[in-house]
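Hey, can you fold this one?
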Amino acid sequence: MRDSQALLPEMLAPEQAIVAFFARARLAAPLIEYVGLADAWSRILARDARAAEPHPSHDRSTMDGFAVASAGGSSRRRIVGEVRMGAAAPRAIGLDETLRIPTGGALPPGADAVVPFEDVREHDGTIEPTGPVEQGAFVTLAASDMRAGECALEAGRRIGPAELGVLATLGFASVPVFRRPRFGIVSTGDELISPSRTPELGEIRDSNRYAIGGMLQGFGCEVEHGPAALDDFESIRDAALTLLKRCDGVVLTGGSSVGARDLVPRVVATLGAPGPIVHGIRLKPGKPTLLAAVGDKPVIGLPGNPTSALVVLDAVARPIVAHCTGERPSVRAHVDAVADEAFVGREGWTWYVPAQLHAVDGRWHAKPLRIHSAHVALLARASGYVAVGERPARVEIGESVRVVRLGSNDGIVLEQPA
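Sure. Predicted structure:
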């Protein structure tokens, strides 16, 4: 096999690698299933959720007070009844009449405003507003939230607490969601042992599979752990084939470089078309990443180093996983911060630099952590990572940096600290 320097001119940038992958891979579309509303949290909505009727269905009060016609101004009005929650108003009102109304109560015919209790003088069954009465004051208009036929939630959206509330409002007792894809994980290497064992010289505990599995679960996948494979062609091939039969995709970690014992690319080439699509990406950490497909299933070969494996899965391979889950692109959870130290990359490459955040005078500040891709604890100490682009390959002290939250799927952009 060619050495890594011979591969460099052919390497693609991360974004180019994903484009090249989808240009050749024909992945299966995610399947749809229905779940109860209470079980839909964090699932991916499979069909647009549309409003069958307007919401709210009627004008309603936003305050406890009196329903009035604004045309009557600040004149005195007779109290002629009360609106009860969950029921229509008992009658219409005229300019000189009013009904008591609770927050959320339905406005009676003839009313177009609400005067809060604290803004009236009440005496002998009448009220007199203490200030001007404006049309629409303290009123939520019918259909102001959602119109009939309007798409309230688009397919591909991850369902969180707010989405659950919308679905319940729209009457979705059963929710169409994409079935969670199952990804198999194969870790490779003669040196790997179970976490329950004490390593001897040259051995390491097999930690990558659990970190990768946790990230995949966070993305919305189910995970199946295959046995660790030895640095042997048949061992890796058997493990990969077994999981391909049972899973919707496979992630292998280790053995994806260009050394004599890095067998994953050769193994994947024998599993079926289209096989390896991208091998080697112009990034650090994670240069020897493999993006492949066997039939309609993705096969992702990650580096064996812990930091490299997780960063590549999060920053590069995530769109492949998102296709399998059905999740549409969204703003990644991040923090905008000030660089306390220079974030330095390499001209012509993309570097993903782990960063730590801290608050100074009400603003977030970030400093880079030295990249030791073999260190398991590096990302656990980091607040996220900064993508340093190809040109300029440097973020100077005092410049703005965006710290992406590793493995996040909630789309939350953290505000500046108080």
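Residues 233-246 form the longest helix (14 residues). Let me know if you want another pass with a different chain boundary.
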